[in-house]
Design goal:
Layout: E1 2-11, H1 34-54, E2 68-72, E3 77-86, E4 89-94, E5 98-103, E6 107-120, E7 125-132, E8 136-141, E9 144-149, E10 153-158, E11 167-178, E12 184-196, E13 200-213, E14 216-231, E15 236-248, E16 253-257, E17 260-270, E18 274-289, E19 300-316, E20 319-330, E21 338-348, E22 353-364, E23 379-391
Parallel strand pairs: 1-23
Antiparallel strand pairs: 1-11, 2-3, 2-6, 3-4, 3-10, 4-5, 6-7, 6-10, 7-8, 8-9, 11-12, 12-13, 13-14, 14-15, 15-16, 15-17, 16-18, 17-18, 18-19, 19-20, 20-21, 21-22, 22-23
Amino acid sequence: MAIVAVSLWVSLSGGRVHADLSDEGKRPDPSSDDALVGVQVKEALDAARQQLESGETTETLPFADGSDWVRTTSGEWARGSIDWMREDVMSFDSDEFGELEINMREVAEVHAARTNTYLLDDRSRLIGFAMITTDKLAVQTEEGIVVRERDELWSIVEGGGPEIDYWSVVLDVGLGMNRGNSNQADLNLRFGLNREGKRTLAEVDYILNLGFADRELNVSRHVVPFTNRVWLTRIWFVEPIAGQLLSDRFQDIRFRAQPAATAGLRFLNIPSRALWDLSVGFGYEYLRLFDPLIGTRNPQHDGLARFQTRARFDFTPDVSFIFSWVTNLIFTTIGNTNHTGIAELLFEVTNVLNLQATFMYFRTEEPHPREDGTLPAKNDYFFTIGVSLRLG
């Protein structure tokens, strides 16, 4: 069987925002002499540090140029722009080295002369230019300079906070074909919408699987997983709404809805290496069948307990493994208990091009017999190898 898949990821984060919050004389254009600019950046950070330590800040922070600069604890400097910072990892687009992901424990100082949104532990946000020292965050906002403890910094969002900065779109397309004793063609499509705010993460996907054998449809599955997460602390979170919608003609499921509310924790967090979440909760299942056996309740209304785990492991900066598993235990009709598993292995070739392998698994413990007495299979799965393109 020859399998081909292409996925496209588009970020709608918008362009960088350069709000004029200070006197342009305080932020001269980058010099053609990088060494000279580097000295000026060091001097600007030294001046800002002295102001913060003395508690006497001026009306504007002393930026040396219009670029972002990061100094690591080893004394190395990188010039470019901050893309984002979350979960104690900063993504930095270096002019010389390309995309870098730096553990915040390895960041000594930051000269951020571009407008960003700085999200804090108390759910407040600051928008403007910033200096970050070993223990302080100073943001030059439209109202003036605001100084907070560095430990209070939750995340950084690129730009000045327009709504579009928080959204991203994912599009995956996979094709599979088999020719020989039987002719089989498969189409796998995924469209995802993601919004990441100050302390929230909302995700909704649409997954379509179609299969044709000798031009006859033999696979028709529509899946819509969704979640809305609110972080309470760096470890604990709640998901006021999470669940899945599903329609599968060949599982005899016309429509299945499983909304739930859950709570969980991030029990493993090794920046740039591993993340692992667990969540549990309760919800409701609505199930309507296409052609149920005579005497079968249709539709069905049941209670469920939802168990979910999600993990990401970065074996190297270029190789990642992403895994999720959801079990919906239908405690009022135990045979309706179902499971969904997704695993992805990603290989980064360039900042734009990835190779990926994806495996999806669906299981219902006791499928309902159809009207003709036949029984749908318990297990359904597919595997795709493909190419991933990332833009933005």
